[in-house]
Amino acid sequence: MGDREYGMIEDMLPLLVSNGKGNFTSAQIEAFNKFKKFIDHLPGGFLIYRADKSEEIIYANKALIRIFECADSKEFIAYTGNTFKGIVYREDYEEVVNSIEHQILTGGDNLDYVEYRILTKKGNIRQVEDYGHFLRTNVGDIYYVFITDSTDKTAKRQQERLQKLEVIEGLSLEYDSILYADLDADRITPYRMSKRLTKQFDGEIKAKSYSWVIEDFVKSWVHPDDQQRIRNILSPDYIRKMLSQNRTFYANFNCLYGEEIQYMQLRIVDAKNYGRISHIIIGSRNIGEELEQERQKKTLLENALKEAKIANIAKNSFLSNISHDMRTPLNALFGYIELAKKHIDDKETIARHLQSVSDAGKQLLDLVDKVLEISYLESQDFRLNEELCNLEEVVAGIYDEVAPVAKKKNINFTLERRGVLHPEVYADVEQLKQILLNLATNAVKYTGNGGKVNFIMEESVSPSAEFVTYRFVVHDTGVGIAQEALEKIFEPFEREYNSTLSGVFGSGLGLTIAKQIIDSMGGTITAESQVGVGSIFTVNLSFKLPKKQETAANTDDVEEFIKGKKLLLVEDNEINLEIETELLEDLGLIVEPAENGKIAVDKMAVAKPAEYLFVLMDIQMPVMDGWQATEGIRALPDPAIANIPIIALSANAFESDKRLSAKNGMNAHLNKPINIDTLLHAIEKTVMNK
Ligand code: ADP
Q1: How far is the CA of 418 from the centre of ligand 1 (A)?
Q2: CA distance 102 to 352
Q3: pTM (two decimals)
């Protein structure tokens, strides 16, 4: 087809030059007219011009005239001066001519392709694509050219290019500089420049010699220790070697920025990923912050590991302490029982030994309680149980409990109240007692004979409308605590000496428990101490004040109320049943026993209304447990019987157990062993105020 086309144009040229006027045969003229009609109706522009200095236009088709927004060929000729030079936008002309000549010379097939702008007659700038052919003919050398308006296409391409750039920009945000290099051509162009690189590129986005830029960059910015390494890494040979294995690689180095050393990372990417490696992208970024974060994370983990290890060691030593501490009262228990057996007829000796058995049992119970307590406090289960109480009474109770022990040791134990104006507050009495009792007991325990312990309760000067703050200080002149031990005194499983060595009974848990409770109450506890001088423990706690005048329960009324009344005591353990029966009967109650939950339900099913004042129910029992029994009783047909107050008395002391009891329809939940005061309060709440 190319050959025919060339032939046709060659044939037609003489006619085109003279526009069909001259000495031509009618057949030639007919062919010429057909040809003209054909090219005039081509959808794109068509142009023939002389390939000499004149660049004279020999022919322009209608489509080209339309592209130039000229009315007809006359106007087009006038507008362009009838030369190719008049076609190309002035600023693009030189480049277009050079490009055409270069392509014709080097291309070999006399074809060229150029893009340039044109200015239409109406003043619009359009972008065109120009496919040119160079031809030698007997009427001279000519170019014939196909021109299409590519304005819209170019705009679209430009839009796509911009979008691509935006994507690259977005993805490479963290890079301070991005460079594009052609290793074969030894060229490098910045796409984004860090402050440093502006020196190498004079702040301009333009191509420079790759080898020069790299050398200048290394010398100007890279830390002397890293210069040779970075030079090697950025050598074209090394880059080619690395990129032949992976599409990308990176290198870290120290940079000098004035006095400051910055930690940088270079990332090198193969831009083409096919054929010979020459086009690459180099990105550089500051990774100091990342490294610092990484380092902090590592330290955090290391510390956590260290703490876990320490906790583990402490736990092991705690376990060995606790085993020893459990063995001590157990040995005493067995020892005194054996002794008692030997003197079975000697009442006085037996009574003495039984007292020792009871003491050892108490010690053991205390230990078990504390271990349970701590796991409870550490669980999610723990909730404070606030009730209205009198702080002065609480503190006095503690004083009374500890005073006999102090007296035995001939310790001067005093209680001081300072500025107490609002003793009636809401507090979790059990927990508060536990804290203060622990501090007072410790003070007496760790103070030698003839020492002094002062227990101070002080109200803060101005309470708010809702809260009052109290300071409790326990001051002793005892052995004191070494600084090292003092720092860890509230941590679990820590004792200054282990009990095996010190010989003083203790779990090392009391203060941990105290601190945890105080934390949960939103208070603080601090300890000051000096070995051989004494210790001061200070607790600050805020309590809610009652809104209206409420008073704590008066147990005398309750005792009066229950006298001669009957209760159902559900308990499977014989010893417990015996002890509890005796205590309840001492209160004037009549006890009807039931050995398990099933028997209890059966007894209630046949009971008369109001026959029983309330039910005291164990939880863990064979046949039917306390919760099931409660459900059974609540399901009885007579509401007067089904709604009887049921109080749980259980060894299951966790908050979750209490909640389960409530869920199963019990009115209160008390812990074993039975405490008369608490029982009376529970009766007051559930039976009398129901
Ligand atoms: P423990 O049951 O061992 O007394 P605590 O947690 O109550 O447990 O106390 C932890 C340790 O703190 C004790 O073993 C003792 O070494 C030290 N300690 C506590 N209170 C005092 C005090 N008032 N004087 C001297 N040492 C004390």
Answers
A1: 26
A2: 123
A3: 0.39
